[in-house]
Amino acid sequence: MLTDNSKGIQKFILHRLWQIxxxxxxxxxxxxxxxxxPGQLLKQLAAKLTPEDQKLLDRYDCxxxxxxxxxxxxxxxxxLMDGMLFGYWVAMAGQGVERIRx
Length: 102
Known about the structure:
Largest sheet: none
Helix content: over 70%
Shape: elongated
Strand content: under 5%
Oligomer: single chain
Low-confidence stretches: none
Mean pLDDT: 86
Structural class: mainly alpha
């Protein structure tokens, strides 16, 4: 999993995921609307739980978020690689192999 200690391409991916979240996802109205009801349901559920059960729910929520973050990392990494290959293919088709410098 990517962390603040990641280096190289992993650091780039982590930074780009954060940037997309801050500049695009948070500002997307549909994303906000889709999060309203689950947020309300979670608050209602937590209010009905004992403190011990609230901790268990919070632990579940954190682990689930880790899994979703990892999914984002994998999707972005694969998309980045696909984009690089596609860019290379377009350059090769447009300029010919002998004119491409890698």
